[in-house]
């Protein structure tokens, strides 16, 4: 198949999933076209059957205070579809990609071509943006007009049905992990640099938005470090970083916490971790936790959204209510009780992560694409005027 993928080219979960999906499909022989305003963060090397089409918003026109990205994207979609004979568009994140794909489909239909599109819902496009009344009617319309709709967790599917009047079927296809990249590696030399005295290493990865509750991570670490000599690695960047740095100074933890900023080789850092912390107040799936589990790192997390579909309480780590800092610290101490306990949780994390192997998930997307294309051949409008 020739597939166009539209996503945000950032370090966020939707962009990561979309890029890894496209690369995986290309390895299986499909032709993949990424269409966005910047090269996706994980599209960092040449791969056969993978193409990148940059969207130019035409920002120089003086009439516009804000560049009309949606119009430029729709135009680019039409161009890429027509000149590369695409069979299907797969748009990630409802805002604004689903509505733009609908516009592009209508333009193509007026030219005698019908190209179906699949919309994948990732989380904040439904749970945060979807709560905004200014966007809700458009999101609802675009989801219902999609030829296919997927959600990354059962929790997100239910959230979508609760928040919107949806008459379209929503299929759950979970996020996945590429074990060629995310697996336990021997990085003892690196761990000695991070923890020269054999300290325990805790890790957190996020975009440092308030919803991630990174300050909880620091408070939890304070409790652990008072009991067991430890180090904390904070990976990522965002609006809460300065507040977190100030909190580290206030708690006199600067010698034990490293802010590493955005990192491409996350797996290299996960290889030295003993526990992954994810205390978010909202999480549609928890891809960062899954990446940690694939590297045999137990997860201590909140029990919101799709996280319980990934992190199994008492087996791969522990779940707690949002803000339960003391309990999360207590759970980490249970994992650190002895080496046997830690190894048991490591094994449980790896076994659970195997359920989300990319080689198990990719065929589900392929089958769904084929279903959507076949359905569109049967049910597409008979006249280009419709």
Structure in words:
With 386 residues, the chain is α/β, with parallel strands linked by helices. The chain has two domains: 197 residues, Rossmann fold, CATH 3.40.50.2000; 168 residues, Rossmann fold (3-Layer(aba) Sandwich). α2 packs across α3. The two termini are 26 Å apart. The C terminus is likely disordered.
Record keyword descriptors for this entry.
about 375 residues, alpha/beta, Rossmann fold, 2 domains, 7-stranded parallel beta sheet, 6-stranded parallel beta sheet, 14 helices, 13 strands, about 40% helix, disordered C terminus
Which shape, going by the Cα principal axes? elongated
| Uncertain stretches of 5 or more adjacent residues | 382-386
Mean pLDDT: 90
Please describe the biggest sheet, giving its number of strands, its sense, and whether it closes into a barrel: 7 strands, parallel
Instruction: Quickly count the helices.
Output: 14
Q: Name the helix and strand elements from N-terminus to C-terminus, one letter apiece.
A: EHEEHEHEHHEHEHEHEHEHEHEEHHH
Assign the CATH superfamily of the largest domain: Glycogen Phosphorylase B
Number of strands: 13
User: How much helicity do the residues have?
Assistant: 40-55%
Structural class assignment: alpha/beta
Number of domains: 2
- Main sheet: which strands, in order across? 3-2-1-4-5-6-7
Strand content: 15-25%
Q: Which fold name corresponds to the CATH topology of the largest domain?
A: Rossmann fold
CATH architecture of the largest domain: 3-Layer(aba) Sandwich
Q: If you compute it from the alpha carbons, what radius of gyration comes out, rounded to the nearest whole angstrom?
A: 22 Å
CATH class of the largest domain: Alpha Beta
């Amino acid at each position: 198949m020739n597939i166009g993928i539209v996503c945000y080219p950032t370090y966020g979960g939707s962009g990561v999933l979309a890029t890894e999906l496209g690369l995986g499909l290309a390895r299986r022989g499909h032709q993949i076209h990424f269409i966005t305003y910047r090269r996706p963060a994980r599209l960092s090397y040449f791969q056969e059957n993978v193409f990148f089409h940059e969207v130019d918003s035409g920002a120089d026109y003086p009439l516009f205070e804000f560049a009309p990205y949606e119009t430029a994207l729709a135009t680019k979609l039409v161009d890429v579809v027509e000149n590369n004979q695409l069979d299907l568009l797969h748009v990630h994140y409802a805002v604004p990609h689903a509505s733009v794909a609908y516009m592009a489909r209508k333009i193509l239909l007026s030219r005698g071509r019908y190209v179906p599109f699949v919309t994948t819902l990732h989380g904040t496009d439904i749970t945060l943006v979807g709560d905004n009344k200014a966007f809700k009617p458009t999101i609802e319309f675009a989801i219902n007009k999609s030829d296919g709709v997927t959600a990354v967790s059962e929790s997100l599917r239910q959230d979508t049905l609760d928040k919107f009047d949806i008459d379209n079927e929503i299929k759950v296809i979970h996020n996945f992990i590429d074990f060629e990249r995310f697996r336990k590696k021997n990085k003892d030399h690196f761990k000695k640099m991070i923890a020269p005295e054999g300290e325990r290493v805790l890790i957190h990865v996020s975009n440092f938005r308030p919803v991630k509750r990174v300050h909880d991570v620091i408070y939890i670490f304070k409790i652990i470090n008072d009991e067991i000599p430890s180090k904390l690695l904070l990976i990522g960047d965002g609006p809460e970083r300065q507040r977190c740095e100030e909190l580290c100074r206030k708690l006199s933890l600067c010698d034990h916490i490293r802010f590493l900023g955005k990192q491409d080789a996350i797996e290299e850092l996960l290889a030295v971790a003993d526990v992954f912390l994810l205390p978010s107040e909202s999480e549609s799936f928890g891809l960062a936790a899954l990446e940690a589990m694939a590297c045999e790192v137990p997860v201590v997390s909140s029990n919101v959204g799709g996280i319980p579909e990934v992190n199994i309480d008492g087996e791969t780590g522990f779940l707690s209510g949002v803000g339960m800092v003391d309990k999360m610290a207590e759970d980490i101490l249970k994992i650190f009780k002895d080496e046997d306990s830690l190894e048991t949780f490591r094994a449980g994390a790896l076994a659970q992560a195997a359920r989300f192997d990319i080689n198990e998930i990719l065929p589900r997307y392929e089958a769904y694409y084929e279903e959507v294309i076949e359905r569109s051949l049967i049910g597409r409008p008979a006249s280009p005027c419709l």
